[in-house]
Amino acid sequence: MSELVASQKVMRNYLNALLTEEQEPEVSVAAEVKKQQLNQLLATVQPEKPAVVMKVAAPAPVKTEPVRAKVIPETIVAKAIPVVSQPVSQPVSQPAAKVAAPALTTPVITTPPPKAPAAAAVKEYRSGRFQALFFSVAGLKVALPLKELGGIHKITTLNTLPGKPAWYKGVMLYREQKINVVNTAMWVMPEKYDQNLAETLNYQYVIMLGKSSWGLACESLVNTVALEQDDVKWRAIEGKRPWLAGLIKQHMCALLDVDAMIALLAQGAGSSD
Known about the structure:
rod-shaped, CheW-lke_dom, alpha+beta, about 45% helix, UCP020479_CheW, 5-stranded mixed sheet, about 270 residues, 2 domains
């Protein structure tokens, strides 16, 4: 380190000497002596000059640094491009397939419901053995399935209402319930109903139809009979008299379709409508 400092001082003095030489053209003897001394000092320091030159020229390899700077941006751009392109394409294709799926299932669901009421139309008494209640009206036997019997009441005072059909006998009160009583003989066989028949009728009971407020006036209760399916000639074709479910062969009496009869009475329709 001492040699390096000494050499630096010699170089500084040398440069100062060069500057002074340009300002003072006339050199004295003392100056020449100093010059000789400087030359001698420089001669002694010359072996170390290569080391100083090598250290100064060493920064030259720094020129390769721009090459490294170019390599860095190239790798960054190459990695960024594939990462952005892949996730964008995948989610777009998947929801497109899910949206089209429900359109195929909707028409299949709409078709079955209309077929359900057909099964509900089958009466419970149309399978196996069933009980039927027999009652008489003007010498005619009439029966209805016992499971569709709403009750039996003793006939009491009837209150007529204006604007009702001729077969509407009146309203009867039973425990705060209003019962619409039907003149059964006039409704079932209007073609045979006349003044003579009307005078001979003696209604004693009211046969309630299911859970409705409609009741059929009857003269007497016959009995309850267990019937098989083959005991009835069932109605096969729909048409007139939908209230007639069938004909009981052995007893030669009509079996009522209670639901159909309630619907007709509610509409104010007769048996032949």
